[in-house]
Amino acid sequence: MYSNYFYILITVGIFFSLFIPLITISEFLFFEPFVVFSIYSETVLSFSLIVILSSLSAFAVSMNIYRAKLIKETRKIGSSIIGTMIGASAGACSCGPIAFSIITTFGTAGSIASSFLTIYEIPIRLISIAILIAVIYVTTKSLSCECNLKSQSG
Amino acid sequence: MVDTKKIAVAGATVALVAILVTFATSYMSDFDTSRTSTPEDGIKTLELKQAPVLGSDTATITIIEVGDYQCHMCKLWFEETRPLIVENYIKTGKVNLVFMDMPFLGSDSIPASEATYCADDQGKYWEYHSMLFRYQEEIDDGWANANRLQAIAFSLDLDIEQFDKCMTTDDHYARVNYNKQVAVTEFGASSTPTFMIVNTSSGDSQRIVGAHPYSTFEEVINSLL
């Protein structure tokens, strides 16, 4: 699959399209007043999980795009998107503008949701990573089987 | 027959777009470069001078920190960046620091802010301010409930009777709410921590959003000095 440069580009594109917004929301990367990248010692774990999550999401989605083109079946794309969204939402609120928007819009309910996502940021990201690993595993097995069938018939 | 798979994918796509739009609009509202001062900035700075000030009253630069005592990024900034600013700029008399409350994260945020002004009544605002960040835990998990706020006051040798009276009669509730309004409407803060660094002589200012590292503050302060 990755002998085709197109899928490498998709993987890299998905990685950065998720990684950059996540590290910006989580206040590792700032653009104003100038571009600054900074990791506090207490947030190394959070940053590492973002890197892992972005990488796995990139692989999961690109593999499923390939699979969808191969056998015209899109079921597992939904699973990889769900895993990505769960991981992306964790820690996205915190003290940032998203939390402020949610809390001012939804009041107490927003405050509870925001604090839940903040408090359980690490477990939520770990669950998301587990979902993505499962998706990648299942997709890899599926692709191996389908490629074998195609090569036998071809 | 309804295709549930397509509905699920469409729903997930809509949710993702909604999240991205919320993020984009929230983030872009904070997208601001340095701005020239207006006469109102001078007035706002004067009002803030009546707030507890850390450092010399005659310092050229004032850092106004907008924060919530339950904000964990504020705590990170307090622990990692603030000590360097205190050492290199506040102790040398170049900069002073003012804290503006923007309590929005949870129901314990407002009482925590009120407690700092009750401590200020007894001359221990910054000590209480520091203790709150030191003891910060998760939002609204009880670390800043009435008992804990009182315990912090006790550890600072405050007059507990006076402190309790201040808290139960909400002496500073209006002040905290006023600070929150000013933070949102005048400084445009929609997240914490947000900083406004002001040269009180020239009126030039620079807004910084987020728990930036020391290098950002060093560069901005030096450019304003």
Strand order of the largest sheet of chain B: 1-3-2-4-5
Order of helices and strands of chain B: HHEEHHEHHHHHEEH
Extended strand count of chain B: 5
Assigned CATH class of the largest domain in chain B: Alpha Beta
**Gyration radius of chain A, in Å:** 18 Å
Strand content of chain A: under 5%
Uncertain segments of chain A are: none
Could you estimate the helical fraction of the residues of chain B in percent?
A: 40-55%
Q: What is the architecture of the largest domain in chain B at the second tier of CATH?
A: 3-Layer(aba) Sandwich
And the CATH topology of the largest domain in chain B?
Glutaredoxin
Report the span from N to C terminus of chain A.
17 Å
Task: Tell me the number of helical segments of chain B per DSSP (H or I, 4 or more residues long).
Answer: 10
Considering the protein shown, what is the CATH homologous superfamily of the largest domain in chain B?
Answer: Glutaredoxin
User: Outline of chain B, from the CA principal axes?
Assistant: globular
Instruction: Kindly report the oligomeric state of this protein.
Output: heterodimer
Strand content of chain B: 5-15%
Mean pLDDT of chain B: 84
Percent helix of chain A, as a range, is: over 70%
Major beta sheet, strand line-up of chain A: 1-2
Brief account:
By secondary structure, chain A is mainly alpha-helical. Chain A contains six helices and two strands, in the order αββααααα.
Description of the structure:
By secondary structure, chain A is an all-alpha fold. Chain A is 77% helix and 3% strand. Chain A has helices at residues 5-25, 44-71, 75-89, 97-106, 108-119, 121-153; strands at 29-30, 36-37. A two-stranded antiparallel sheet of chain A has the order 1-2. In chain A, a hairpin with a 5-residue loop joins strand 1 and strand 2 (36-37). In chain A, helix 2 runs parallel beside helix 6 (121-153) and helix 4 packs antiparallel against helix 5. By secondary structure, chain B is of the alpha+beta class. Chain B has two domains: 1-31; 34-224, Glutaredoxin. Chain B has helices at 4-29, 39-49, 72-80, 82-90, 109-120, 125-134, 146-155, 160-168, 173-185, 214-224; strands at 53-54, 61-67, 95-101, 194-199, 205-209. Chain B has a five-stranded mixed beta sheet with strand order 1-3-2-4-5, with helices on both faces. In chain B, a hairpin with a 5-residue loop joins strand 4 (194-199) and strand 5 (205-209). In chain B, helix 5 packs across helix 8 (160-168) and helix 5 (109-120) crosses helix 9 (173-185). Chain B starts with a helix and ends with a helix.
